[in-house]
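Hi all, posting the design record for the shared folder.

TITLE: backbone redesign
STEP: 1 of 1
STRUCTURE INPUT:
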């Protein structure tokens, strides 16, 4: 598995799209720090970008990598190697390469700006950690979609619909539900609904860390009310860990039962 992770990682680190991804975050970091004298405001702006863009990039890269490396994967399947080892190795290699591009792209501007010497660095590290979680989560989900669909067009279509559902449509349906049933106690329902969406969960986690009550919205306020800041952070991270583990487990099960 480590050899497959190493090959996938180095193969992706040589990809020009990975450099484009890195340079985008590098330029974004410098621009935001140049326009904002307050580093904490730059972190809030980055949060709104990362929780939407990182899942999209992870989804597209995951589907593209699976379909483009299909011939190499079939060659590996002909060897005495467990299927789960092959696909988990590729999944980890891709997720690590995207995470490193994200961390370096945003980390270099903030380090040069001197943010490491301020208290904002802890909020920034929380933002990077959340972005890494989202990369692993959506690469895993995209691998599952690609494994279940041999047709590239259907695979790409389902992957984009999945991202749209979690990034945009889910929030709209959730808001409509809250408006329609506003006479009923929906606190517990809000907590459960938030846990089932890693993008909303990541946004609330960062807002809890920043302690910005005005921007938390209904679900963020419920998190803070029921769990408090520290417990809310712990439960949020625990939920994100489950979001990483469950797709990885699904990749193992699907790959072992799939007829290639």
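Okay, here is what came back for every position:
SEQUENCE:
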């Amino acid at each position: 598995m480590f050899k497959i992770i190493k090959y996938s990682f180095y193969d992706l680190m040589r990809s020009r799209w990975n450099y484009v991804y890195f340079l985008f975050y590098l330029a974004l970091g410098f621009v935001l720090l140049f326009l904002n004298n307050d580093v904490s405001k730059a972190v809030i702006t980055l949060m709104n970008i990362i929780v939407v863009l990182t899942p999209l990039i992870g989804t597209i890269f995951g589907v593209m990598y699976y379909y483009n490396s299909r011939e190499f994967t079939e060659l590996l399947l002909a060897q005495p190697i467990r299927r789960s080892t092959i696909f988990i190795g590729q999944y980890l290699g891709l997720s690590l390469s995207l995470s490193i591009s994200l961390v370096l792209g945003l980390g270099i501007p903030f380090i040069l700006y001197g943010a490491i010497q301020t208290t904002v660095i802890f909020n920034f590290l929380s933002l990077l950690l959340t972005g890494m979680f989202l990369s692993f989560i959506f690469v895993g989900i995209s691998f599952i979609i690609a494994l279940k669909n041999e047709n590239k067009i259907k695979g790409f279509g389902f992957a984009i619909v999945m991202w749209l559902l979690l990034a945009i449509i889910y929030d709209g349906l959730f808001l409509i539900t809250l408006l329609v049933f506003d006479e009923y106690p929906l606190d517990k329902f809000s907590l459960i609904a938030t846990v089932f969406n890693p993008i909303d969960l990541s946004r609330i986690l960062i807002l809890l860390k920043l302690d910005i009550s005005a921007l938390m919205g209904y679900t963020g306020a419920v998190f803070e009310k029921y769990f408090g800041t520290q417990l809310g952070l712990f439960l949020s991270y625990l939920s994100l860990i489950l979001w990483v583990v469950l797709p990885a487990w699904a990749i193992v099960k699907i790959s072992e039962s799939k007829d290639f």
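COMMENT: The radius of gyration is 19 Å.
Let me know if anyone wants the other runs.
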